[in-house]
Design a protein that fits this description.
- The protein is mainly alpha-helical and about 60 residues long.
- The chain has one domain.
- Helices cover about 50% and strands about 10% of the residues.
- It contains 3 helices and 2 strands.
- It is globular and about 35 Å long.
- The relative contact order is 0.18.
Length: about 60
């Protein structure tokens, strides 16, 4: 884990492909869909590709 900053109650780190399950869940919450929009991430594989082609590429 590559920690960027750590406090008593928070650890901020970069995303990894191990976060795919979290991303899948997050991108399909009702509030994400309502306010941000459907990113068509419907499987773990979609979530991994979403991370690879977006978040991880931006690092």
């Amino acid at each position: 884990m590559h920690t960027i900053i750590e406090t008593e109650r928070l650890i901020l780190r970069k995303f990894t492909l191990h976060d795919a399950a979290f991303v899948l869940e997050l991108l399909n919450t009702p509030t994400w869909l309502q306010f941000i929009g459907d990113r068509n991430v419907l499987s773990i594989e979609d979530a991994e590709n979403y991370l690879k082609n977006g978040t991880l590429k931006s690092y």
